[in-house]
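Supplementary notes for students who missed Thursday's class. We covered one full example, reproduced here. Read the sequence, then the structure, then the short commentary at the end.
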Amino acid sequence: MKKKIVVGAVMLTAAVATGALLYAMHDFPFETAAAAPARPSPVPIVAGTVSQHDVPIYLTGVGTVIAYNTDVVRAQIQGQIFTINFTEGQHVHAGDLLAQIDPRPYQALIDQYTGALERDQAQLANANANLVRYTQLGAKGWATPQLIETQKAQVGQLDGAITTDKALIEAAKVQLSFTRLTSPIDGVVGIRQIDVGNIISPSSTNGLCVVTQLDPISLIFTLPETVLPQIQKQQQINKAPLTVIAYNQDDTIELGQGQLGLVNNEILQTTGSIQLKANFSNKENKLWPGELVNARLLLDTRHNGLTVPAAVIQQGPSGAYAWVVNPDNTVAIRQVKVAQISDGQALIDSGLSANERVVVDGQYKLQPGTHVIALHGKAAEEAAAQDAMQTPIP
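Structure (token representation):
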């Protein structure tokens, strides 16, 4: 009996407690319910706009500058260097005197041959006079035909000797001209390889010096063989040489603009690339032989092309994408196709439209649907700098 009374009391107490709890929840709901979560604040970003304008399409390769002409000035005769008439690094023109070989032995040879010519000419005059006399005597029967024929042969012999003498004199004059070592081209003189007083000869390995033509100048660069059909197509369309622009290795300084002169007649099997040669006017000498440069072949110009800053383009498992800012200031991921990235600008083939807003900095904080606020001016610069510091290195 007592056990039943205890159980009943416990049940009554539980019922009272439950009723009190329901009464409290009904009359005081804000005191018992959990507070609703606050809406997160917008994420600060740096935004940009999709621009539309004419965009040049480049094929970029690495090349080496080579001289348009390079000539080693060598001696064609042997002799002692008499004078040096240039300074190293001097700009010279074709025909300028660079050095003088001692001309006296060759001038003496010309004098010798000239003397022989004068002697033979005097003997020829005497032989001609005798022939006239013998011919007159032969007409009267006082000279034999044999004597006259012999005299004619002597005249012919002396004529031949004079011809030989003249040829020897001309050859000696050529040899004498070789004592003047002149520049064969316009260009810049390199390091002098021999000093005054030394003997130079055709067998001298280094010659006198090297003259290098710098204006115009050439550039040989390579591109993948896969772009060859595009180049050939543009050459047929343009009917004019394609433009090539040379930049320094950092792509910060334009060194010159030239024209494509040659697509080599074979593909390099070891690298799967094609060699191209461009020629540049180089009046300011910005291009120098042996210099390693970046070459941009202007293939085409896309009219009304869409561009965004290169920082807009992100890479994911599905390829390139960009964060697009919606009109309600939320963001969404948009897959894009990039044609090229050049000079900090990405040319978009598909995925974006003109004047759309895109995220330039701050992407690492975003998720689809995130509300954002665009920063401007100094705040945008500071956010970009902070974003660069916080972005994980891949």
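Commentary. The chain has four domains: 45-55+304-390, 58-67+214-302, 75-102+179-207, 104-177. Residues 104-139 form the longest helix (36 residues). If anything here is unclear, bring it to office hours.
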